[in-house]
Design brief:
The structure is a single chain. The protein is elongated, with a radius of gyration of 21 Å. The relative contact order is 0.13. The longest helix has 14 residues. It contains 6 helices and no strands. The protein is an all-alpha fold.
């Protein structure tokens, strides 16, 4: 019933109860968000090379990269799935997408 009220799985409630029994209230404190997948150095070099060829090589019509387009290319080339938000939070990726991989853009939005 508690799991239904909290809209979580019964397994989560059992895990929380066990943590509370073994470590009191401090054991229930959040450890922070789960780690998001990220792009490692060698993987980023591969991505940089692929993006450097431009979106048209990957069958996109735009002259400039967009985050959703890059999100589509990553699993194809790196076997890694990243959300647009996670991708945007990667400083090197954002810099690459906004500057290095995109020629001066003439499109207006």
């Amino acid at each position: 019933m508690l799991a239904k009220d909290l809209r979580v799985s019964v397994r989560s409630v059992e895990r929380w109860r066990r943590a509370w029994r073994e470590g009191s209230m401090e054991a229930l404190c959040s450890a922070g968000p789960a780690n998001s997948p990220t792009i490692a150095g060698p993987q980023f070099a591969v991505l940089e090379k692929k993006l450097g060829k431009g979106p048209s090589i990957h069958r996109f019509d735009d002259a400039c990269w967009t985050l959703p387009q890059v999100q589509t290319v990553i699993p194809r080339r790196l076997w890694l799935s990243l959300s647009v938000t996670t991708l945007w939070r990667l400083p090197k990726a954002a810099r690459l997408i906004l500057a290095d991989a995109c020629p001066p853009c003439t499109r207006t939005r």
